Amino acid sequence: MAQEIQTLFNEAVRLERNGELDRAESQYKLLLEKDPNYHLALQNLGVVYAKQGKHAEAIPLFSKAHKLHANVKNSYNLAVSLYKHEETEKAISFLKQTLTFEKKFISAHLLLAQAYQKLGNDEKTEVYLNNVIKIEPNHKSALGGLAMFYYERNRFPESLKMIERYLILYPGNAQLKIIQSEILAKQGNYKASATLLSAMVKEDVGFTNFNESLQAAWKEEDEVVHESLVRIQSKAKLKLKEFQTKLELSKENPEEFSPPDAQEALDLSLLYLFNGNPEKAMQYLVFAQKMKEKTEPDRLS
Fold this sequence. Notes:
CATH topology of the largest domain: Serine Threonine Protein Phosphatase 5, Tetratricopeptide repeat
Organism: Leptospira harrisiae
CATH architecture of the largest domain: Alpha Horseshoe
Structural class: mainly alpha
Protein name: Anaphase-promoting protein
TPR repeats: 39-72, 106-139
Low-confidence stretches: 205-217
InterPro entries: CellSynth/LPSAsmb/PSIAsmb, TPR-like_helical_dom_sf, TPR_rpt
CATH class of the largest domain: Mainly Alpha
Helix content: over 70%
Distance between the termini: 85 Å
Keywords: Repeat, TPR repeat
């Protein structure tokens, strides 16, 4: 019997590794009919379901495997499927249990940050992102996540520091360059912001289609930074729509329309960048720079 079980398991693993998930599923089920408590088969069948997004089916399998043999893998797999199934509080519980087995398990820290962000717990989100940095100082997802976490909470010096670290290690991210430019402007370093924007508009192809570059730039583990950028872009679209409505109304009542000041023009430049219109972005950038030069000539000299 033991030899038969092992043979079935080996064949199921082979099928799974070859990507034959339907056949692997059948093989694992056949094995579990003969031995319902074979925890490795429970665990692997759960993985087969999870790979297909069938987390409702995966959860009871991971749960039973965990009860039979609690370890880092079973705890984490169960936590991931619970998180994907929108059972965030339960996911957090098993992620913390995962860390009792392996304190420096980076994926668990990252998912805890994502889970706490989903629950709106800023303190815990920051703690777990920083935990990743302590374990691996150059971790791409954690650096990007902290950069956007600080930015959305107007903690601009901390955000800028993380963005600079990120771009030194992983250059070429157009979205973070836009955020970097905006922070510089908010801090009053207009010349540096304008110089950076000018270079980006001329050189970075990422602005031509922000949506596509946003999807391509971030992996699933980058959920914290990705969701932040999606929120920022959504706000940018609303602001741009408001300005365009105001512009249309001004054609009917031009005497009631006042042109944007330097900061408003810079904001509009950034909005157009986020919405994939580098030509308009450059127009407002040039306008903003001219306005600023008139009002603060010494600062830009």
